[in-house]
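Colleagues,

For the teaching module next term, I've prepared a clean inverse folding example: a structure given as tokens, and then the sequence designed for it. I'd like students to try predicting residues themselves before seeing the answer, so please don't circulate the second half yet.
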């Protein structure tokens, strides 16, 4: 192993230790929304203890709501694979009306709210369900989260949708875009 690689490993470890000391001192990690110290340690392990050369791969987890009737609610569970953490970076959606063709100017903006729940921690990403067009982009311009969110391997993520339209049913696909973070080996 080269001197440069060893230096990078030491630098990564010192950064992680420094962050962990701050987490212990303040009882939470900045940007973690008051999560427990254990959750902060998991986040550090997934994100900051990843040493140079650790594999990362882009990933998309999706939920397909085939037909969300007017005034109806539905849930789907996305299972994160056991081989890696998942770092959520962007949110995207696509909605159509009974498979009708769309152009950019006729794009459907559904009257549907969304809530995303991490069942491992019990935390919801939003304090209340929010309209999909307010928090999610389309495939060309997905919504970039202000800070990323790391989900543990084998975590279950519940996507909850509620159609608040009085008369329109929607076919909606929700996409969680990010990266799989593998353990260094």
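(Answer key — instructors only)
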């Amino acid at each position: 192993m080269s001197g440069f690689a060893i230096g990078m490993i030491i630098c990564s470890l010192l950064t992680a230790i420094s962050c962990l000391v701050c987490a212990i001192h303040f009882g939470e990690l900045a940007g973690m929304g008051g999560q427990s110290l254990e959750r902060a340690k998991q986040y550090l392990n997934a994100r900051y203890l990843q040493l140079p050369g650790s594999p990362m791969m882009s990933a998309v987890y999706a939920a397909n709501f085939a037909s969300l009737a007017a005034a109806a609610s539905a849930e789907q569970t996305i299972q994160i694979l056991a081989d890696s953490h998942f770092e959520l970076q962007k949110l995207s959606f696509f909605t159509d009306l009974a498979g009708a063709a769309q152009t950019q100017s006729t794009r459907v903006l559904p009257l549907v709210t969304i809530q995303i729940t991490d069942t491992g921690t019990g935390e919801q990403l939003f304090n209340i369900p929010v309209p999909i067009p307010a928090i999610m982009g389309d495939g060309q311009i997905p919504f970039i989260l202000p800070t990323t969110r790391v989900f543990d391997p084998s975590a279950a993520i519940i996507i909850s949708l509620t159609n608040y339209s009085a008369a329109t049913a929607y076919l909606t696909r929700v996409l969680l875009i990010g990266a799989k973070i593998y353990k260094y080996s």
